[in-house]
Amino acid sequence: MSIRFTAMARRGTVALLVATGLAVATGCGGGSDDKADKPQTSASASKGSGSNPSAQEGQSETPLAELKGTDGLLLQVTSAQRDSGGFVTVNGDIKNDGANSVVIPAQVSGDETEITKHGFSLGGATLVDSKGKKRYYVLRDTDGRPLTSTGITNVDAGQTIPVFMQFPAPPADTTEVTLQLPTFSSGSIKISG
What's the pLDDT tens digit per position in 139-153? Predict the structure, then answer.
């Protein structure tokens, strides 16, 4: 891996940490009792309704792209959101449309030692900006763990599992990229935000 890419990934991680810190600081600021009650109501509504994790909320029902994998696996991309912190979060669902339980191929984690030493993940995913002629790899935290869904080793027949991946953001004028995940077909997605 080049020093330039490592520096870009670190800047993206630092930007993510700063954005998270600002969000926490903003959320912890003073205010009236009405504002303090609203997040609690929202959180309890999510728990009671049995909805998907908050990373999946607010997504369109029509997938941006469907990437077909092996043995009936399907990755449906439901959103690709640009954040002011300098990264793009891609959300979706891995579905098993087959009749049998399927083990997720190890290639999906990628082949970089830094990522694979932390266990199974979607760390092999990349975003390709054809316009800018660049490939963006999954971001990592300060310990080298990929900023993606982790620990998904198999998918039962008919099961759907929500997933996410975070990448450095392409330039603001790039709105369409290609998502690639080893053993899955590629798919073109539009970035919002």
Answer: 999 998 999 999 999
Distance CA 86, CA 167 (A): 9
Structure tokens at 152: 């998904």
Report pLDDT digits (tens) over 33-64.
444 443 443 333 333 333 334 444 444 578 89
**Amino acid making up residue 91:** N
Architecture of domain 3-190: Sandwich (2.60)
The b/e string for 39-55 (b: 16+ C-beta within 10 A; e otherwise) is eeeeeeeeeeeeebeee
Read off the tokens for 132. Answer: 């800018």
| Helices assigned H by DSSP within 109-186 | 113-116
End-to-end alpha carbon distance in the chain: 29
Mean pLDDT computed over 56-81:
83
Given a contact cutoff of 8 angstroms between Cβ atoms, the answer to whether 64 and 79 are in contact is: yes
Calpha distance 53→55 (Å, rounded):
5
Q: Tell which residue, 105, 49, 24, 40, has the closest CA to residue 72.
A: 105
Average pLDDT over residues 131-144: 93
Rounded to 10 degrees, what is the CA torsion of 42, 45, 51, 54?
Answer: 20
